[in-house]
Structures are given as C-alpha cells and as structure tokens.
Specification:
With 198 residues, the protein is an alpha+beta fold. It has two domains: 29 residues; 140 residues, Umud Fragment, subunit A, CATH 2.10.109.10. 17% of the residues lie in helices and 32% in strands. It has two helices and twelve strands. Strands 1, 2, 3, 4, 9, 10, 11 and 12 form an eight-stranded antiparallel β-sheet that branches. A four-stranded antiparallel β-sheet has the order 7-6-5-8, with no helix packed on it. A hairpin with a 2-residue loop joins β3 and β4. The chain is elongated.
C-alpha cells in the first residue's frame, strides 16, 4: 500500500500556470480533422474522376444476357478501354440502342468489321466456321436463322447470350462503333457474382 506524501496543515501549493495551448484537446483535434477532410475530399475527387472518365456502375435490366449476366445484377463498365484497344469478338459491350439512343443495351460482340455472319437453325457461323459458344447453354438457345450478312465498316454484330429472349442484331442490325461506349468488366453485386465479367 502506498502512502500519500504528508503536507503541513497551514501551507498551500501555489497556483499552477496553465499549460501550453497544445494541451487543449480541441486545439489538437483541429489539425487531425483538417487532414481527415483533405483525405476525404481527395478520395471523393479520385472516385468522381474514375466514375466519370473510366468506370461506370451499371445495373443490368432484363434477361437477355443470362446466364452470364442476370437481371438486376450490378457491374462496372470500362468507358476508356476502347481508346487503348479494339473491340473484339466475345466482348460484352454497352451501347446506345440504335432505334432509341436514350436507351442502353448490353450484348456480346459476335462479328467485327468485314466478318461474314450467318445463323442456321440457331448455329452461328462466322466467316463460314461454326462459332463455339459455351456461354449459351442449350436451355437458352433457339432455332432462329439469319441470312448471311457482311458486317459494315466500323460496325459490330451483337447477340444476347439468352438467344430466345434477346432483341439484338438479328432485329436491329449491326451496331455502329459510335454507339458503343463501354465494355462490361467486373460484377460487384450480388456477392456470389463478384468477379470479372466473361
């Protein structure tokens, strides 16, 4: 057990001078709050830049890309990638609907400029060769045919993976490159679908 130091009965300690201003908790908090606000604003600025110029969150509406993309699934679209690389067969692209540019569609690129596209009883042929489409399960296939067409310059032939439920180039023709504004790259909701879009 510790004893308190003894003091004389008639003496009193001189008043203590106030400590330096930095010992005031409010003063100490101001620099920390400033740093926090700076970091927050910087983070928001970077996020805004990424969303405006590079990645855009998109909600899939409809079933035309099932099973690859489901109705109400959330994905990120890369709006910058096609400045660095060409649009390729197999890419899932987001574009303005040619018949109503106020609407956006999402489909898979099947044919690029100069390709000969033909569909015979549901089987897609590209330049005379049958296309292996493992992303179209038998339950989502259909038996529609489409006469051979040559994809025009700067255009792309697109199809939905859910062939029996898709409004695509079989209906509105090839899509001009100027209508395509992004590539689906990453799913982030629901959690079981988190990952790269294939």
């Amino acid at each position: 057990m510790l004893d308190a130091p003894k003091q004389s009965g008639n003496s009193s300690a001189p008043p203590q001078a106030a400590g330096p201003a930095s010992s005031n908790p409010g003063v100490r908090l101001r620099p920390a709050l400033g740093v926090w606000l700076r970091d927050l604003l910087l983070s928001l600025g970077i996020s805004a830049f990424i969303i405006i110029f590079i990645y855009q969150p998109v909600k899939v509406e409809g079933t035309s890309m099932m099973p690859s993309l489901e109705d109400q699934e959330r994905i990120f679209v890369n709006k910058f990638v096609y400045r660095l690389e060409p649009i390729s067969r197999g890419d899932i692209v987001v574009f303005r609907y040619p018949r109503d540019p106020s609407k956006s569609y999402i489909k898979r690129v099947i044919g690029v400029e100069g390709d000969h596209i033909r569909i015979d009883g549901g089987q897609v042929y590209v330049n005379g060769e049958p296309l292996d489409e493992d992303y179209v399960p038998p339950a989502y296939a259909d038996a529609r045919s489409y006469p051979e067409t040559v994809v025009p310059p700067r255009c792309y032939f697109v199809l939905g993976d859910h062939r029996s439920m898709s409004n695509d180039s079989r209906d509105f023709g090839p899509v001009n490159q100027s209508y395509i504004y992004g590539k689906a790259v990453f799913g982030y909701w629901p959690m079981e679908k988190v990952g790269r879009v294939r």
